[in-house]
Amino acid sequence: MNPSMKFTRTLAALVLSLAFVVPSFAQSSTPITLEMHMPKGAAYTILTDMTQKINGTSSGIDVKIDQHMVFGMSMKVKEAKKDGNQVLTTKYDRLAITQNVDAGGQQIETIVDTKDPSKNKGDAAEEIAPRLTKLIGVSYNSEYDKYGAQVSTDLDSVIAKYQVSDFAGNSENNQYAVVFPDHPVSIGDSWHAKTVKNEGGQDLTTDVTYTLKSVGTTTAEIGFESHIVGLIAEGSLDATMNGSYTVSLKTGWTSNATMQMEMNMKVKEQGTGTESPMKITSNFTITSEPKK
H or E element: which one contains 10? Predict the structure, then answer.
């Protein structure tokens, strides 16, 4: 197989796994308590729209990728526990990617859309499309405490069952949920959250600083900055992210979020194990609405 084509197929799978309209607000200086309180049966749609620019090398070949990805999900509150914890069931509805690659001067286009397979295009689509299609209709459960911290998830078992580790990671609910402080905060106050994941082929540490930017009658805007470092199955990474969330004061759930990410990676090439550098710049927009 052409080395550039092989590298392209590897990246097409990898970047999917590295897988967050801010309104105006009335200002308030009164301390507020932020918690996640969604009633059993509450249901939402989640749409993640992501654009990426990727620069890397493979076997001495320079590779540049521009791509656009869409992740459509449905979320329902399966259980609201007496201790304040909530169990969320998330289902895959749509996965789509449009990718344009320049590999050493060779132009390669790939299109995959589980909602409309007639749009699928390119040799890599023959490999990617069946794997994405496997996920449509599949669901997983995650439990969160009242502050939005993830307590447990069975996503890893879903990944193992369907052999889709390349694609499923970007769907974790903890991308959509803010980890709130355990005390009231006022505008301008900041708090920190740290998560460590050492399972499913990953060893990642994420440090996040949140800041309450503004408060309205029904929503609050929360800015954040984060640093992610560690190992994944494909290599090592070091990334920074920043952006903002708009969350409901009543439920704590995110209605809108915008994020930017800069990631530097060392990716192990299939077959040789050689590490190649890769830089990824991503812009995310997330929209979640009550399901009708």
Answer: helix 3-16
Task: Give alpha helix (H) positions in 80-202.
Answer: 123-135, 155-162, 165-168
Q: Token pair of 122, please? A: 């390119």
Structure tokens at 149: 């911290």
User: Which amino acid would we find at residue 8?
Assistant: T
User: Mapping DSSP to helix (H, G, I), strand (E, B) and coil, where does residue 211 land?
Assistant: strand
Dist CA 173 CA 175 (whole Å): 5
Per-residue pLDDT of the chain (292 residues; tens, 9 = 90+): 554 455 555 554 454 444 433 333 344 568 999 999 999 999 999 999 999 999 988 777 899 999 999 999 999 999 999 999 999 999 999 999 999 999 888 999 999 999 999 999 999 999 889 988 988 999 999 999 999 998 988 887 777 776 665 555 555 545 678 999 999 999 999 999 998 877 656 788 999 999 999 999 999 999 999 999 988 767 788 999 999 999 999 999 999 999 999 999 888 777 676 788 889 999 999 999 998 7
Report the C-alpha gap between 74 and 289 in whole angstroms.
10
Report the candidate in 22, 67, 68, 23 with the shortest Cα–Cα distance to residue 49. 68
Q: How far apart are CA 246 and CA 23, in angstroms?
A: 8
**pTM, two decimal places:** 0.84
Contact call for residues 291 and 45 (beta carbons, < 8 A): yes
